[in-house]
Amino acid sequence: MRRRESMISKEHKRAAALHEKLQLLRSITNSHAENDTAIIIHASKYIGELKQKVDRLNQDIINTPQSSNIQDSLPTVTVETLEKGFLVNVYSAKSCPGLLVSVLEVFEELNLTVVQARASCTENFQLEAISMEGDENVGEIVDAQVVRRAVLQAIMHLNTNITDD
Fold first, then answer.
1. Tell me, what CATH number does 154's domain have?
2. Taking the complete model, does pTM exceed 0.85, yes or no?
3. What is the DSSP string of 108-150?
4. CA quadruple 117, 119, 125, 126: dihedral sign
5. Cβ–Cβ < 8 Å for 116, 129
6. ∠ at Cα 157 (66, 143), nearest 5°?
7. Spatial separation of the C-alpha atoms in residues 48 and 1, rounded to whole Å
8. pLDDT (tens digit, 0 to 9) for every residue of the chain, 165 residues total?
9. Which domain holds residue 153?
10. Which of 14, 31, 130, 164 has the fewest CB within 10 Å, making it most exposed?
11. Are residues 157 and 85 in the same domain?
12. How far apart, in whole angstroms, are the C-alpha atoms of residue 113 and residue 85?
């Protein structure tokens, strides 16, 4: 007798779990269906619509390859705040003459002293620098966003000048 009660209990748990999952599926797909079959049919249609959207987006990506090339050529600048300075990482798919000097000039303008740096200026440009705030910055607010914006502006300004020549 206990075995049969145990089987019935398990069956009720499975049915409750299935019902809960169907109700979740109903809410995700914004279905107003009441019975289980209608919920599943509506979900199937919803999945088909999502698949069509994905296909359209993939087709858009294929049809506009120049946008990804533009994205790849944009420089990446990340700035992390340290106790008394910043860790600055700069990456650009293209290196150009004077890029390292321009970035270092930004540090100088912001009164940041480079205490450690690694740079590569061959085919692409990479710079990792640790800089500390100088004593002259007392009262001035130099935060990570200010440093990031200034470095990006210097890179963009340099790239604009090179393409104009």
1. 3.30.70.260
2. no
3. HHTTEEEEEEEEE-SSSEEEEEEEEE-GGGTT----HHHHHHH
4. negative
5. yes
6. 105
7. 47
8. 667 777 788 888 999 999 999 998 888 888 888 898 999 999 899 888 888 988 888 777 777 655 444 445 678 899 998 888 889 999 988 777 888 899 999 999 998 999 999 998 888 889 999 998 876 555 566 788 889 999 999 888 877 665 554
9. 70-164
10. 164
11. yes
12. 9
- In Å, the largest CA–CA distance within the chain is 92
147, with CB counted inside 10 A (0-12, 13-18, 19+), is buried
Domain count, the chain: 2
73-98 b/e with 16+ CB inside 10 Å = b?
eebebebeeeeebbebebebeeebee
Number of neighbouring beta carbons within 10 Å of residue 162: 13
Q: Please report, as a single letter, which amino acid is at residue 142.
A: V
* Residue with tokens 């740079």, as numbered in its chain: 119
Give me 85's structure tokens: 């300075």
Residues 126 and 159 in one domain: yes
Tell me which residue has tokens 């106790």. Answer: 83
